[in-house]
Automatic annotation (TrEMBL):
Organism of origin: candidate division LCP-89 bacterium B3_LCP
PROSITE patterns xrefs: FIDO
Gene Ontology molecular functions: ATP binding
Keyword Glycosyltransferase in record: no
Binding locations of ATP: 181-188, 211-212
Annotated positions for site Important for autoinhibition of adenylyltransferase activity: 42
Presence of keyword Nucleotide-binding: yes
Residue intervals of the Fido domain: 92-245
Protein known as: Fido domain-containing protein
């Protein structure tokens, strides 16, 4: 195990010192993977491609929580912080760890949940996925346990192999759990610091199942008391192996980046296989495919403008104010579509290129104004959705009526005001045409919009008449 990681380190050492260009190549390849691999432990739903896209453009993919992008910001700044500390030849101490936690968690809106840079000041029960309660060091023992951890680390530095030192520091830190939240990310970042300080690659842990299995194996060997202190003499070979394999994989990526060798990304294998099949089949239509995508994007935007011009500000009754909004933007790798787009995709078995966008526009009563006017709410809890999406060489407009309701929904430790939408499947209408907007008949598009809204108004009228009869 140690021979493998030392051999890869020797290969990296032979390339040092890195030039600015080499640093840039390593950072471009490594940083998105490091951020993605640690955030997936926090139930962050962003894919590696979405993480990379956000880092390169600072643009958020649609259909995702803002917090998920803030977590990227936090980890990115934390990585920069530890790299600066390594370059300045600084080492771990209490001040450094608190500052690292502050940098990691401050970008996230829920600062009251994290208390950036502060040890926990009360005990909070943490429930594992299997329903069992996880017990960590009581809050009033955290300062003493952290002080003992620093003393152990300082004593072992230079005497214990950096791999073992990093793994045992990581494990003991998780047993202490000094902060309210962010402890897992902190442990992995401190792993990276100890390894990086000694010339090894960061431990980019990609196998969650193996990681947790190794932690549980170590937990089972612990006594009931003095667990952090006891962990020092514990045999945690499976966990050390996980850290070793993760660092070795990372160093191989670094060596490949230095050699400008293309490293396939696991989550891109489906796309890679499509390229492979094209080569074998002799299909050389890449430029044509790109042209079709550009045509479809232009057509979808033009259709969206037509819908906007036709609806925006023009459809107002004497009694009800209607609101028009959009476009909401989705991409195929979000895995979180609206109810209408989900139905269309399922109904037609549609697939999309990774860079194709799907647009949706909404037309609905102004619920707040109705409520303020004291009108009966139930008949108006409806929304007409228009989706503009593409498939193959065509573009389609789809409409559907959704019943809506408001309520508090608990999502990933966040209380958020959410709108719950349920699509009436029998209300879905569609119009599919050429990817060239110039070929479209505008009267057909306007007929679709009219028939959809006619159905929408009719449902409100029917429900409103029913409510009035009930009141009588």
């Amino acid at each position: 195990m140690y021979e493998k990681i030392d051999e890869l380190k020797a290969k990296l050492d032979a390339e040092r010192p890195f030039t600015a260009d080499q640093f840039e190549r390593i950072d471009k390849e490594l940083t998105p993977r490091r951020i993605y691999s640690t955030n997936i432990f926090e139930d962050n739903s962003l894919t590696l491609e979405e993480t990379r896209f956000y880092l390169e453009t600072n643009r958020m993919a649609g259909g995702k929580l803002k917090r998920e992008f803030q977590e990227i910001d936090g980890v990115r700044e934390a990585i920069k912080f530890i790299e600066d500390k390594i370059e300045a030849r600084k080492d771990i101490n209490e001040e450094m760890i608190k500052e690292l936690h502050s940098i990691l968690t401050e970008p996230i809106d829920q600062v009251e949940r994290y208390h950036p840079g502060e040890y926990k000041d009360r005990d909070m029960p943490i429930i594992a996925k299997d329903g069992t309660r996880l017990n960590f060091v009581p809050f009033d023992r955290v300062p003493a346990e952290m002080s003992a951890l620093f003393s152990w680390y300082n004593e072992g530095s230079g005497k214990v192999h950096p791999l073992e030192l990093a793994a045992k520091f990581h494990y003991r830190f998780t047993l202490i759990h000094p902060f309210f939240d962010g402890n897992g990310r902190m442990a992995r970042l401190l792993d990276d610091f100890i390894l990086g300080k000694n010339g090894y690659g960061p431990a980019m842990i990609e196998d969650k199942a193996k990681y947790y299995a190794a932690l549980h194996d170590a937990d089972d060997k612990l006594p009931a008391t003095n667990r952090p202190e006891a962990s020092v003499s514990l045999d945690i070979a499976p966990f050390i192996e996980v850290i070793c394999d993760s660092s070795c994989n990372c160093m191989q990526i670094m060596l490949d980046a230095l050699a400008e060798t293309q490293v396939p990304i696991a989550s891109d294998l489906a796309a890679r296989l499509q390229t492979f099949d094209k080569v074998l089949s002799g299909d050389s239509s890449t430029d044509l495919d790109k042209q079709h995508i550009e045509e479809k994007e232009a057509a979808k935007l033009a259709i969206g403008r037509e819908i906007s011009e036709y609806l925006k500000g023009k459809l107002q009754s004497k009694y009800v104010q209607f609101l028009f909004s959009g476009p909401a933007k989705f991409q195929q790798n979000n895995h979180e579509y609206s109810p209408l787009i989900s139905e269309v995709v399922s109904r037609h078995n549609y697939t999309f290129a990774p860079n194709e966008s799907l647009y949706e526009y909404h037309f609905a009563p102004n619920i707040a104004a109705l409520e303020e006017a004291g009108m009966t709410m139930e008949p108006f809890m409806k929304l007409m959705s228009f989706a503009v999406i593409s498939h193959d060489t065509e573009v389609g407009v789809f409409s559907g009526l959704m019943d809506i309701e408001f309520g508090k929904v608990y999502i990933k430790q966040e209380n958020r005001e959410e709108i719950v939408m349920k699509l009436r499947q029998d209300s879905v209408r569609e119009l599919v045409g050429s990817s060239l907007f110039a070929d479209w008949e505008l009267k057909d598009l306007r007929n679709l919009i009219y028939s959809s809204l006619d159905y929408f108004f009719q449902q409100i009228e029917n429900d409103y008449a029913g409510e009035s009869k009930d009141e009588d």
